C-alpha cells in the first residue's frame, strides 16, 4: 500500500469512490475507496512541490456522468501543470514569480484562474494560454474562487477579500474580512455564499455583497481550509487536529479531533456524502456525513450508517431499519412518503408500510435535490429535472433554454400538485412555470417577470389549479404574491409584506407564514389582496420573533405546526390556531353556514375578516354581509345591501367585481350584457370622466347624461370646464335634467324587464 511520507498539500475526487492526493514527497497517489487500495500514479520531478489540485469539471448536460479526465496542479516553482488521469504531464506553463498558490477551473471548464506569491491573478484558456492578468497587488494571494456565473473572481489580499468581475471597468467589491491573513476562500454556486478562513483562528460566512452572515468563535489554531458541499447545504472546516462539519448558516453539526496535523485542503465528493482532507502529517483523512435527520408528523428518520436508515414512530416508539444496496445520497420525508436516492436507485416508502418500498433505477447517479408534493415528487440531478408519481411512474421533465440544474435548490424550485416553478439563474427576475403533468410551459411559454431579482419562491399546495398562487421574496426582502394562471390578462403582482427573510405554505390549506424583521407573521388568507386589500391587516396573525435570534429559517409548516431553525441550529416549534384551517376546509366545500357558526364560536376578528374575504371571492354576498358587520365595516355592509337591490344578475356581478377593485372587468361584463348605460354610470360614479364620455360617444347613447353629470360635478366645486373633448360635445347643447332622468328610468325599467323575462323563460324550460 502506497502512503505519503511528507505533508499532503491537496486532494481531489474523480468519482464518488476515487480520490487523488498530492504531497511534498512528489507523489500523486490514487485512492480507491471500494477496494481500500492505493496506487502511485506518478512521481513528479524533485523540484516540483505540489500546492493545489483541481479536476477539470465534468461537462454539464451529458447524460452519463463521465469521469474527470485531467486536472491542473500548481506548484512551488511558479508553474502550473495540466496532468491527465493516468499521470502524464500534458503541459507545464510558467505562470508566476514564486509559488503558484492556487488554481481553479471555472464551472464550464472554459477558463482557469491562477494566483501566486507575486500577488498576481491570471486567467488562462483551457489549453493553458494566458488570456489576461486580472489584478496585481503587493501581497501574496493565498486562495481564489470563481463566482457562480463564472463572471467574477474572489481572491484574498492579506486581511481583505476582493471580488473582481472579469469585464474591465466593472465595480470591484473589497472589504476587511479577518484580523489575520486570510488563508482559504470558497464560493458556492447554489446558495451564492462565501466562506473565508484566516490566521485569526476564525471562519466566516458572507453573502456575495460582502455582508457578514456568520462569524465563528476563535479556535486554538489558524483555520487552514474551508470547503462547501456541492449542494451548498453544508460546509467543512479544517484546522490543526480539527475537522468540523457546519450548516450553511454557520452552526456546527459535528466536531472531530483526528490526529492529522493541520488539514491544508478539503475536498467534497461529487455526491456530497463524504469529504477528504489533506493532512500535515502525511495522512489523508476520509469522513462520511451521517446522522442526518428528517421529521414529519410522528415519524423521525435518521441516517445511521452510509447504507442504513432508522425510522422511529414517536407515538408508539416502533422502530424500523431500512437497508439499502448503495450509499444514501439524498432523502426527503413529507406527505406520508419517504423518498431516498442512492447512487444508482430511488426508493419510495409509504409511512403506512416501511417493508415494501418501490424501487426504480436512476438515469444518472447524483441526485442533488428531492422535492415533494401531495401527488408526486421531483428529482433534480446534473442533467435534468424529473417528476415521478409515488408509484414510481415517470411523469414529465420540464426544460427551458439555458437551464442549469446543478445550481437549483429548495429556494429556487417549487412544486405543487399541478405546477412546477423554477427561478432562472441567467435572469434572476424571471420565474418559469410548467404544467406538472406534461412538463410543458404554462400559458404558451409566458414566464413570470418581476422588477427586481428574486431570492426565494413557493407555490401554494391546495385548492383548484385555476387559483394556484405563487409567493416570492425579492432582493429587497419584499414578499409578493401572484396567480400562476393568467387567462390572457396581465395578472397583478401584489406586495404582501416587507423585510421577509423566509416563508412557507402550509401543506393542508393555503395559509402562508413568514419571518418579518422582528415578527413571525401568518397570512391566514393571502388571497384577500385580490378581494379587499383594506382588510388584509385584519386577516394576519403576528407575534414577536426576537426569541428566534438572528437569521432564523422556516424548516416546515405541517398542519398547524411551524418548525423554525434558529441561527445556533436549535429547532423551535410554533403552533398556530387550528381554526383558520377548518374555515378554509368549510369554504372549499361551500359550507357557508358552518363557516359562520365557527366564527361565532371562535369570536376572533381575524376569522371574521378571513370569512368576509373568502365570501366575496366566492360571490357569497349574504355571508360576506354577516362577516363585514362582525368586523365593523359598516360602509361595506351598506354597499353589499345596495348590490342586492340591483335589477339584473349582470349588474350584481359587475358591482361585486367593483367591490374587489376590478373596475375594467366590471365594465366589460356590463358591455357584453348590452348594459351600456350601466357601464357609463359606473365610470361616472368613479369620476372616470374621459372613459364615460368615450363609451357614450362610441355607443352613440347618453352623451347628454355624461355632460349633465360633468356639469353638475364642476358646479359643485365652482370650476370651469377645461377638457377639450367635453367642450367640443357641450357646444350648443342644452341640458334638460327632466329628459335625462326619464331616460335613466327607462334604462332601469328595461334592465328589470330583461332580467324577469330571462327568469320566466328559465321557469318555462323547467316546467317542460
UniProtKB/TrEMBL annotation:
It is found in: Cytoplasm, Cytoskeleton, Cilium axoneme; Cytoplasm, Cytoskeleton, Cilium basal body. Transmembrane segments: none annotated. Residues 291-579 form the IFT80 second beta-propeller domain. The keyword Mitochondrion does not apply. One of its GO terms (cellular component) is axoneme. Keywords: Cell projection, Cilium, Cytoplasm, Cytoskeleton, Repeat, WD repeat. Its main location: cytoplasm. WD repeats lie at residues 93-125, 175-207. GO terms for biological process: cilium assembly. InterPro entries: Beta-prop_IFT80_2nd, TPR_IFT80_172_dom, WD40/YVTN_repeat-like_dom_sf, WD40_repeat_dom_sf, WD40_rpt. The keyword Ligase does not apply. Residues 607-753 form the IFT80/172/WDR35 TPR domain. Pfam families: Beta-prop_IFT80_2nd (PF23335), TPR_IFT80_172 (PF23387), WD40 (PF00400). Component of the IFT complex B, at least composed of IFT20, IFT22, IFT25, IFT27, IFT46, IFT52, TRAF3IP1/IFT54, IFT57, IFT74, IFT80, IFT81, and IFT88. Interacts with IFT88. Interacts with IFT57 and IFT70B. Component of the intraflagellar transport (IFT) complex B, which is essential for the development and maintenance of motile and sensory cilia. This is Intraflagellar transport protein 80 homolog. It comes from Ursus americanus (American black bear). The gene is IFT80.
Amino acid at each position: 500500500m502506497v502512503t505519503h511520507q511528507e505533508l499532503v498539500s491537496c486532494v481531489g475526487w474523480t468519482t464518488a469512490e476515487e480520490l487523488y492526493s498530492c504531497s511534498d514527497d512528489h507523489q500523486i497517489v490514487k485512492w480507491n475507496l471500494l477496494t481500500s487500495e492505493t496506487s502511485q500514479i506518478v512521481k513528479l520531478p524533485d523540484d516540483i512541490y505540489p500546492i493545489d489540485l483541481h479536476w477539470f469539471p465534468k461537462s454539464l448536460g451529458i447524460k452519463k456522468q463521465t469521469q474527470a479526465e485531467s486536472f491542473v496542479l500548481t506548484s512551488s516553482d511558479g508553474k502550473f501543470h495540466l496532468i491527465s488521469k493516468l499521470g502524464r504531464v500534458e503541459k507545464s506553463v510558467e505562470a508566476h514569480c514564486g509559488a503558484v498558490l492556487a488554481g481553479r477551473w471555472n464551472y464550464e471548464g472554459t477558463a482557469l484562474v491562477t494566483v501566486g506569491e507575486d500577488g498576481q491573478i491570471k486567467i488562462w484558456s483551457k489549453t493553458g494560454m494566458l488570456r489576461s492578468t486580472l489584478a496585481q497587488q503587493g501581497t501574496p494571494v493565498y486562495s481564489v474562487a470563481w463566482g457562480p456565473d463564472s463572471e467574477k473572481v474572489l481572491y484574498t489580499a492579506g486581511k481583505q477579500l476582493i471580488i473582481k468581475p472579469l469585464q474591465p471597468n466593472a465595480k470591484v467589491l473589497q472589504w476587511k474580512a479577518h484580523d489575520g491573513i486570510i488563508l482559504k476562500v470558497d464560493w458556492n454556486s447554489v446558495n451564492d455564499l462565501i466562506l473565508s478562513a484566516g490566521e485569526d483562528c476564525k471562519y466566516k460566512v458572507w453573502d456575495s455583497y460582502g455582508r457578514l452572515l456568520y462569524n465563528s468563535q476563535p479556535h486554538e489554531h489558524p483555520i487552514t481550509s474551508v470547503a462547501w458541499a456541492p449542494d451548498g447545504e453544508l460546509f467543512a472546516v479544517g484546522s490543526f487536529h480539527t475537522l468540523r462539519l457546519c450548516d450553511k448558516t454557520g452552526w456546527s453539526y459535528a466536531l472531530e479531533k483526528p490526529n492529522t496535523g493541520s488539514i491544508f485542503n478539503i475536498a467534497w465528493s461529487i455526491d456530497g456524502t463524504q469529504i477528504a482532507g489533506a493532512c500535515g502529517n502525511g495522512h489523508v483523512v476520509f469522513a462520511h456525513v451521517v446522522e442526518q435527520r428528517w421529521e414529519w408528523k410522528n415519524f423521525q428518520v435518521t441516517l445511521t450508517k452510509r447504507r442504513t436508515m432508522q425510522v422511529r414512530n414517536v407515538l408508539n416508539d416502533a422502530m424500523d431499519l431500512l437497508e439499502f444496496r448503495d450509499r444514501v445520497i439524498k432523502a426527503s420525508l413529507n406527505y406520508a412518503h419517504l423518498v431516498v436516492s442512492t447512487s444508482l436507485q430511488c426508493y419510495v416508502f409509504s409511512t403506512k408500510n416501511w417493508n415494501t418500498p418501490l424501487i426504480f433505477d436512476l438515469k444518472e447517479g447524483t441526485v442533488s435535490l428531492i422535492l415533494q408534493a401531495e401527488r408526486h415528487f421531483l428529482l433534480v440531478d446534473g442533467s435534468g429535472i424529473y417528476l415521478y408519481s409515488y408509484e414510481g411512474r415517470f411523469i414529465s421533465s420540464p426544460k427551458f433554454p439555458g437551464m442549469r440544474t446543478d445550481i437549483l435548490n429548495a429556494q429556487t424550485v417549487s412544486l405543487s400538485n399541478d405546477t412546477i416553478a423554477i427561478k432562472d439563474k441567467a435572469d434572476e427576475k424571471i420565474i418559469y412555470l410548467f404544467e406538472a403533468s406534461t412538463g410543458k410551459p404554462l400559458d404558451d411559454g409566458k414566464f413570470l417577470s418581476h422588477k427586481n431579482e428574486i431570492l426565494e419562491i413557493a407555490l401554494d399546495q391546495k385548492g383548484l389549479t385555476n387559483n394556484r398562487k405563487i409567493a416570492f421574496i425579492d432582493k429587497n426582502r419584499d414578499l409578493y404574491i401572484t396567480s400562476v394562471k393568467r387567462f390572457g390578462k396581465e395578472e397583478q403582482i401584489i406586495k404582501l409584506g416587507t423585510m421577509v427573510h423566509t416563508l412557507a405554505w402550509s401543506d393542508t390549506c393555503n395559509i402562508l407564514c413568514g419571518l418579518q424583521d422582528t415578527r413571525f407573521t401568518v397570512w391566514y388568507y393571502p388571497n384577500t389582496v385580490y378581494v379587499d386589500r383594506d382588510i388584509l391587516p385584519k386577516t394576519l396573525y403576528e407575534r414577536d420573533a426576537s426569541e428566534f435570534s438572528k437569521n432564523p429559517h422556516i424548516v416546515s409548516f405541517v398542519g398547524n405546526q411551524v418548525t423554525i431553525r434558529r441561527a445556533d441550529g436549535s429547532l423551535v416549534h410554533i403552533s398556530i390556531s387550528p381554526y383558520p384551517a377548518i374555515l378554509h376546509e368549510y369554504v372549499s366545500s361551500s359550507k357557508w353556514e358552518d363557516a359562520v357558526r365557527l366564527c361565532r364560536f371562535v369570536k376572533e376578528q381575524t376569522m371574521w375578516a378571513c370569512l368576509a374575504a373568502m365570501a366575496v371571492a366566492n360571490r357569497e354576498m349574504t355571508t360576506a354581509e354577516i362577516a363585514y358587520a362582525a368586523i365593523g365595516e359598516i360602509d361595506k355592509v351598506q354597499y353589499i345591501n345596495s348590490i342586492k337591490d340591483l335589477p339584473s344578475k349582470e349588474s350584481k356581478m359587475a358591482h361585486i367585481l367593483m367591490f374587489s377593485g376590478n373596475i375594467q372587468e366590471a365594465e366589460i361584463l356590463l358591455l357584453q350584457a348590452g348594459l351600456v348605460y350601466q357601464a357609463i354610470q359606473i365610470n361616472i360614479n368613479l369620476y372616470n370622466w374621459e372613459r364615460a364620455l368615450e363609451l357614450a360617444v362610441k355607443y352613440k347613447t347618453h352623451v347628454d347624461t355624461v355632460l349633465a353629470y360633468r356639469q353638475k360635478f364642476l358646479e359643485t366645486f365652482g370650476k370651469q370646464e377645461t377638457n377639450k373633448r367635453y367642450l367640443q360635445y357641450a357646444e350648443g347643447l342644452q341640458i334638460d335634467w327632466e329628459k335625462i332622468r326619464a331616460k335613466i328610468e327607462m334604462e332601469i325599467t328595461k334592465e328589470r324587464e330583461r332580467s324577469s323575462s330571462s327568469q320566466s323563460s328559465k321557469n318555462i324550460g323547467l316546467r317542460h
